[in-house]
Amino acid sequence: MDDFYADMHRGIERNRNAAELLKTAARYQHAVNQIAAERDEIQRDYDTLIGQNAGNLALRYAYASELAKFAPDHPLVRDAALRDRIVRHAKDTIQATNGDWNAVRELGATFTMPRRT
Q: Where are the chain's structural domains?
């Protein structure tokens, strides 16, 4: 009879251990689900950013093409170093302002063009 009780006691302990493992697994699964949701949100934000960047790039080239037609001597058309300087200032501005796109827009709107000669 002692073997019966010992086996029963071991079975009860295994069930308790299994229940604890299931609780632990549920906590881990909850954490995994949270991380997956955060990853999905980041992916959506990234996809949105890529789409916006593609639109901005297409507009930039459309504007540059039209500007070249109407003012081929304009500094933005002729001076690659000037274009690079504007891009560099934009990168510095976005980093310095912790992602303030309004500051970048303001930079572009107020950038002083060199006089045409």
A: 1-70, 72-117
